[in-house]
């Protein structure tokens, strides 16, 4: 019995020791990752088995990391690499890994990471460069350089719900894919596609245009000030596109640059929905779309594009910069729409749908039938370049004011005194366009009449001028100057302009809120100055002041001299 008790106590002590030892062990000691270092002598089949986990180390563990040291590696792949696990494939600095033929295919819950300062090239894959068929799949490109060149189908194909793709830093290139058939460069059918940390992504010369170089039916996030995505379309033909965003797709540009250049395509960015936020640009992000040739009918078709903060949108070289699309601006973005037919409209036959602009801030260069320059409403050369007059969020029609020298300012817009549904708000401007800010705001007018009688009688023949400014602001803000006063009646001169409703003095510094303010001149009798004759006196110098004294002395001397002479005669 005692031996049994002693045995139990010993076992307990051993168990306690083991438990305490396990608690003291670092978490990473629980499982040591295994690594395979490539030599370049592996066959394509051997490399495939190492990556997919078929080949294990001596302990039976699958290799977690497959590493390529500096050097050149060429493998002629004969079959896809099927990945159903987590694996990291690393190309060290100076390593150039080329896989000709074959491709990488990710399945449910797989997590594949390509990393390292070296480079990977998938040359002429058998079907697709990267492929997946489940939204749980993850592909990571972590500060490496990865190129897919010459795939017969999509270079990157995430079907059946897409996958999660993370491209951080480095370069990622998809080019010369889908030379035949109805495919393109990249297709993502759901989930998320993230590009960040200064990554440079280039998609070019892919497909016949139906799916574009980039077909995004998932959510694409491009972030970081140094991150850039560039699409260079060169063979989509007139019926093709640079990028396609179907109904469920979204593009979010956060501080990064997204550039689409088309050479043959009829459309730069072709979307399927202008009701939801198809494209969102924020924190100084840039979307630049340019046609360098081809049919170039629509820059952005059937999309809702929202700009926040100091973001930038520039569309140029297309007949319709925005076609059947809705532009929304907030904050102080910089927008340039330069369509050869319309800046924002809908093509007559193959319309993209409704169009319009909701502008709450920024310098927005798109042409309407008229605009205000130095306070004067001026017809736009060439006619209307926007089919629908822009509005604010309250639905008020807006007028474009071209204000020279205005930048990094906030304009306070007053509430509409005639409509409570039009509240006050602030309009911010950041960078302007070459020294001129294009501000869209509710307009108010000032009518200058020759006389009070002309105003009372609404005599249009005696209306001198009408000037326009932003509601709640003065004429000086928009660069307007007061007109010359009419010739004054006989015997009078011009005094000032007066507000016909209030009787108060009116000038360029007077704030205006009413839709129309009427002013007329007031005259006065000129002030005549009374002329006073001034008698001039000689200057009082020291000598002049003593003349009476000297004259008295002289007279006294003469008298004394005369008396002396008389006395001498008597004597």
Q: What is the CATH C-level name of the domain at 444-524?
A: Mainly Beta
With helices defined by DSSP (H or I, 4 residues minimum), what is the helix count? 5
Query: Which class of secondary structure composition applies to the elements?
Result: mainly beta
The percent of residues in helical segments reads: 10-25%
**What is the second-level CATH architecture of the domain at 444-524?**
Sandwich
| Envelope shape | elongated
Q: At the fourth CATH level, what is the homologous superfamily of the domain at 444-524?
A: Listeria-Bacteroides repeat domain
Beta-strand segment tally: 46
Work out the strand percent: 35-45%
Q: Quote the CATH topology of the domain at 444-524.
A: Immunoglobulin-like
End-to-end span in angstroms? 187 Å
The parts where pLDDT drops under 50 for at least 5 residues are 1-7, 21-30, 563-571
Largest pleated sheet: 23 strands, parallel
**Overall average residue pLDDT:** 90
Q: Return Rg in Å.
A: 42 Å
Overview of this protein structure:
Residues 1-32 form the signal peptide. Keywords: Signal. It comes from Mogibacterium diversum. This is Sortase. By secondary structure, this protein is mainly β. The protein has a domain at 444-524: Listeria-Bacteroides repeat domain (Immunoglobulin-like, Sandwich). It is 11% helix and 40% strand. It contains five helices and 46 strands. It has a 23-stranded parallel beta sheet that branches. It has a twelve-stranded parallel beta sheet with strand order 3-6-9-12-15-18-21-24-27-29-32-35, with no helix packed on it. Helix 2 links the parallel strand 1 and strand 2. Residues 1-7, 21-30 and 563-571 have low confidence and may be disordered.
């Amino acid at each position: 019995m005692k031996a049994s008790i002693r045995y139990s106590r010993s076992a307990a002590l051993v168990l306690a020791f083991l438990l305490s030892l396990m608690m003291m062990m670092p978490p990473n000691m629980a499982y040591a990752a295994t690594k395979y270092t490539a030599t370049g002598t592996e066959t394509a089949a051997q490399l495939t088995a190492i990556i997919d986990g078929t080949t294990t180390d001596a302990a039976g563990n699958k290799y977690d990391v497959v590493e390529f040291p500096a050097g050149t590696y060429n493998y002629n792949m004969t079959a896809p690499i099927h990945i159903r696990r987590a694996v990291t494939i690393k190309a060290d600095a100076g390593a150039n890994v080329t896989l000709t033929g074959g491709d990488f295919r990710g399945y449910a819950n797989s997590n594949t990471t390509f990393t390292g300062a070296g480079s990977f090239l998938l040359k002429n894959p058998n079907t697709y460069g990267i492929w997946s068929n489940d939204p749980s799949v993850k592909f990571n490109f972590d500060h490496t350089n990865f190129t897919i060149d010459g795939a017969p189908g999509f270079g990157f194909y995430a079907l059946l719900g897409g996958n999660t793709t993370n491209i951080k830093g480095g370069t990622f290139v998809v080019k010369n894919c889908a030379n035949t058939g109805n495919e393109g460069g990249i297709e993502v059918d759901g989930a998320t596609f993230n590009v960040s940390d200064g990554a440079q992504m280039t998609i070019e010369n892919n497909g016949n245009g139906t799916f574009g170089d980039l077909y995004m039916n998932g959510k694409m996030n491009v972030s970081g000030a140094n991150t850039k995505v560039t699409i260079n379309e060169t063979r989509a033909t007139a019926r093709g596109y640079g990028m396609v965003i179907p109904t469920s797709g979204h593009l979010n540009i956060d501080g990064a640059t997204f550039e689409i250049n088309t050479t043959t395509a009829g459309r730069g960015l072709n979307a399927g929905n202008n009701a939801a936020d198809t494209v969102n640009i924020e924190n100084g992000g840039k979307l630049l779309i340019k046609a360098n040739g081809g049919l170039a009918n629509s820059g952005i078709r059937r999309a809702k594009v929202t700009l926040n903060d100091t973001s930038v949108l520039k569309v140029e070289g297309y007949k319709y910069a925005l076609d059947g699309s809705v532009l929304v601006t907030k904050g102080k973005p910089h927008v340039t729409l330069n369509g050869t037919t319309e800046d924002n409209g809908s093509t007559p036959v193959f319309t993209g749908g409704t169009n319009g602009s909701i502008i709450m801030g920024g310098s927005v260069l798109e042409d309407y039938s008229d605009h205000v320059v130095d306070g004067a409403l001026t017809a736009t050369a060439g006619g209307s370049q926007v089919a629908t007059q822009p509005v604010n969020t309250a639905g008020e029609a807006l007028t474009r004011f071209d204000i020279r020298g205005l930048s990094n300012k906030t304009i306070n817009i007053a509430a509409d005194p005639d409509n409570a549904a039009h509240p006050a708000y602030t309009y911010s401007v950041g960078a302007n366009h070459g020294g001129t800010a294009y501000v869209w705001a509710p307009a108010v007018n000032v009518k200058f009449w020759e006389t009070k009688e002309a105003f009372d009688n609404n005599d249009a023949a005696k209306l001198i001028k009408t000037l326009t400014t932003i509601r709640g602001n003065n004429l000086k803000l928009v660069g307007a100057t007061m007109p010359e006063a009419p010739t004054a009646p006989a015997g009078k001169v011009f005094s000032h302009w007066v507000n016909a409703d209030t009787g108060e003095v009116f000038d360029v510094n007077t704030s205006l809120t009413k839709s129309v303010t009427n002013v007329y001149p007031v005259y006065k009798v000129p002030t005549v100055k009374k002329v006073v004759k001034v008698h001039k006196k000689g200057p009082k110098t020291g000598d002049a002041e003593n003349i009476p004294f000297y004259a008295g002395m002289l007279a006294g001397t003469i008298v004394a001299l005369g008396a002396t002479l008389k006395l001498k005669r008597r004597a």
